[in-house]
Give the backbone structure.
Amino acid sequence: MYKFFIKNNRQIVTLFSIGYFKPAPGTIGSFISLIILFIISNFISYEIFILLFFILIIISNYSIKLYIENIKEKDAPEIIIDEFLGCYLIVIFFPYFDKINIILLYFISLIVFRFFDILKIYPINLIDKNFKNPLGIILDDLIAALYTIITLFIFSIYVY
């Protein structure tokens, strides 16, 4: 298993080199992630989809750890597996927004998630500042995803 991570680590943390796309690798990665995750979520059971999310958090944490040890930079811009996980958490909640047109849901999710991820409002800013480790890299995106989910719930209540 260790050899797998060493050999494929860069591909994991950069989402198969999408993290090297310029400009805005996080936004490009989020856009592609939402599309891929929405498609995958329609082909596997909801329970398996959720289980895979937790497995990917563990794999991502380990992969980011190996990657930052190798490059000696704590949160390199090409590391976008964290955006993927944030998008994954949002897509887990898509079934709860069945009143919202799927294209509109996708668009709002992308814009709001990137807004929170880039702006880094409380407590995302504290995590980003104080946790310079793999879990901190992942956690700030998961909180941005939670803010996005809350925004979608508010949108679905008051607009739809």
Notes: Residues 2-158 form one domain.
